[in-house]
Sequence to fold (274 residues):
Amino acid sequence: MRVLFLGDIVGRSARQAVIEQLAVLRENLSLDFIVVNCENAAGGFGITPAICDLLFDAGADVLTTGNHVWDKREIIEYIANEPRLLRPINMAEGSPGVGIATVTNDAGARLCVMNVMTNLFMAPNDPVFLALDDGLVRNKLGRDADFILVDVHGEATSEKMALGHLADGRASMLVGTHTHVPTADHHILPSGTAYQTDAGMCGDYNSVIGMEKQAATDRFMGRGNSRLSVALGPPTLCGLVVESDETGLAISVAPLRIGGHLSMATGTDIIGRA
Fold:
């Protein structure tokens, strides 16, 4: 199986680029599934039902989120009734929606997606290591799904790396989100799980992690309380393509970066299993 994960969509220009490119990417890369983190897709903060519908119609199979999931109140009722839109599983008990979804494509292949949020430098959530371990106990590769993808939304590199090792051999891929900057550490862990600390964002990199650079710089320099707004320049779509074998473990991993200001990576620059 071959699965594409796209990092956080930040704002309108990135959202439109993703919508225009999903069908092309599915065909060109022979993708079985596409998963997208959408938590910043509505003006840089949150997600709306209408945007979710557009992304699903464009070809996204599952949407993940993070700490901005509740920024738009209208998403609360929608997420309670749309199991393909996830929120982190370790949010407070009673939170609307779910953090794990399994979808099946026309060929009968099963994709399980888990969404977790880390604890270091993030808003309080239940312990992420216990939550991920429990999710992987209840959803076993081969038994319950042919491919398991974990989106780890968080700040600290060390925490994401440790979660990768916790999932090694139990998930097909574990990829980080939230920092909006793609890391160069994509590889396959010793027991067969593809890993990247952060997929980066789908957004304008002539910015401060997707926000207009002057307002962000003014804030750091104490020049008033400038309102942050999304940078609207040419977006780079950033993600990770992972291929698995019949066991569900990864046999190749390749970054995807197209458009905008970053160097191009087509999703075919493959790193295989050692």
Observations:
- The longest helix spans residues 11-28.
- Residues 25 and 62 are 16 Å apart (CA to CA).
